[in-house]
Amino acid sequence: MVINFMLNGRSRKVDVEPATLVSELLRETLNLTGTHVGCDTSQCGACTVLLNGDAVKSCTLLAPSLDGAALMTIEGLSATSGSNRLHPMQEAFHENHGLQCGFCTPGMVMTAVALATRNPAPTEAEVRHGLEGNLCRCTGYQNIVASVIAGAAAMNAPAIGE
């Protein structure tokens, strides 16, 4: 079946089998390998992407559900459209050492962006609750939580000159 959707701000038309998972479509068909697959059971969160602004796990989402939707992957994040600069949340993860091996990082960042969009000033408890569906086996989460708080502040800070 043919699906039409927005992918990272650009219109896409793709022919997919109805049973194709979004993670498969992204990695195998569209060569967007930033979305990682860690468990295939929707438990680890490494495959998290934004669907119409909401954090969803792409390893259990069927590609036909993208028809007419807007999908954002880690590759689509940037400071501004068309920019090569890091998104404020990515910059916060870098500055606060919120990653180690990096496998879970794309899913963490995408979940954090959705959280910060809904809650511009999350508390530590709110961040910890918001990240419950994302697992990291390398860190103690403290730097991830600090990264999300800093990233939310940066995402929601007034632009210079406002």
Note the gap between the termini.
Answer: 46 Å
Overall morphology: globular
Tally of separate helices? 5
Q: What string, H for helix and E for strand, traces the elements in order?
A: EEHEEEHHHH
| Percent of sequence in beta strands | 5-15%
Strand order of the largest sheet: 2-1-5-3-4
- Poorly predicted spans: none
CA radius of gyration is: 15 Å
Say how many strands there are: 5
Biggest pleated sheet: 5 strands, mixed
* Mean pLDDT reading: 93
**Helix/strand/pairing category:** alpha+beta
Task: State the helical fraction.
Answer: 25-40%
Give the topology, please.
Layout: E1 2-7, E2 10-15, H1 22-29, E3 48-51, E4 54-57, E5 70-72, H2 88-95, H3 105-118, H4 124-130, H5 142-155
Parallel strand pairs: 1-5
Antiparallel strand pairs: 1-2, 3-4, 3-5
Summarize the structure in short:
With 162 residues, the chain is an alpha+beta fold. The protein is 31% helix and 14% strand. The protein has helices at residues 22-29, 88-95, 105-118, 124-130, 142-155, and strands at 2-7, 10-15, 48-51, 54-57, 70-72.
Written account of the structure:
The chain has a five-stranded mixed beta sheet, covered by helices on one side. It has five helices and five strands; from the N terminus they run ββαβββαααα. It is an alpha+beta fold and about 160 residues long. Strand 1 (about 1-5) and strand 2 (about 10-15) form a beta hairpin. The chain has helices at about 20-30, 90-95, 105-120, 125-130, 140-155, and strands at about 1-5, 10-15, 50, 55, 70. Helix 2 (about 90-95) runs antiparallel to helix 5 (about 140-155) and helix 3 (about 105-120) packs across helix 5 (about 140-155).
